[in-house]
Predict the structure.
Amino acid sequence: MMQALAEQDPSPVQAPRARTVIAASVVLDGKGHTLRDTRIVIEGSKIVAIDPAAGPVDYDLRGLTVLPGWIDAHVHITWIFGPDGKNAGQGGATPEAAYAAASNAWLTLMAGFTTVQSIGTPADLALRDAIAKGMLPGPRILTSAEPIMGKSAETGTPDEIRAFVRKQKQAGADLIKIYASGGMTRGTMTMSQEQLNAACDEAKKQSLRTLVHAYRDAVRAATLAGCTEIEHGLGASDDDLKLMAERGTYLDPQAGLLLENYIHYKDKFVAPPYFPEEAFEAMKGLIPTTQEFMKRAARIPGLKIVYGTDAVAGMHGRNAEDFIHRVRDCGIDPMAAMVSANSQNAEAMGMGDQIGAIAHGLQADIIALDGDPLKDITAVRRVVFVMKGGAVYKSDAHSVIPISQN
Ligand SMILES: [Zn+2]
């Protein structure tokens, strides 16, 4: 133990043991399979064996459902409500904003999300790095730094857009976020095909993935541009979705939590002209529309649907609620819902050989639920064990602070 601590620099909030054995009666492996009555062996940060005969057991998770830590493909981890209780947006630079963002990270990890993709602000970079160094507890963060905001011709020439992509890479971005259309209700294209082509092509040249906020016509345009993943996607036709399936473009739709959150916290978000009173009325009608879209997308053969909540203020730590919407309101198979946040998300992030499954050689990101999400999807609310990279952050329903490893 002392040695493991000494190897980490600087002092981590939590360090993995040299060797940990978890006993489990039911393991969802993240790829759609169920393993029964087995043991997971972890050395350092990685899973080194799945072996029913391994011992001695350090954590007995029999009676629970064990699965890989979830991945949320779309959050805004620094988006908070300010000291006045009102929406303070993301990327705040005050001490209060920094602590609130750290709290968001903590809540997200405790909810079973061991990796998130935060797409929206350069402020994510410092939080990502602090967590990676072990200074704060939180999920592994991937971020886009500054996004490309589509503003028609003002977005820039293709060469300017390419330079912007390279600048984000230099700033430390893990991926590129692109806004290619307006909001949910309007959704007209804010970037031309030529501009999108330049953005996604340059990102590829820099070995970066592209996540594109897109509604309606922008979905097809981003797909044709060779972008990696479409966020939201509402208004895309079946033909657009079939094209995405053909091209292997991932779709990240939401199933109701985001809109519910805006409506629930209306008093905090309402602020004309961007968040007028009427917008919240319109959102009520949009919930069934987004759910119809999810159902329609799920019927497109070969379309790869990932899990992303678009977590803004009020949603951090409640990321699993959209699973309930997917399964209960959209008729998605519960195993498919789990896989979308495990191996499917890992694959979409190009990290399938590192996270998203319980298998030999992968990061030991392991959670346990009190209940069976395949029978009762609300079990996703009862995360009673969280391990990230071999370190345990939660080991029973009542833990609110990291468990001592000594
Ligand atoms: Zn978003």
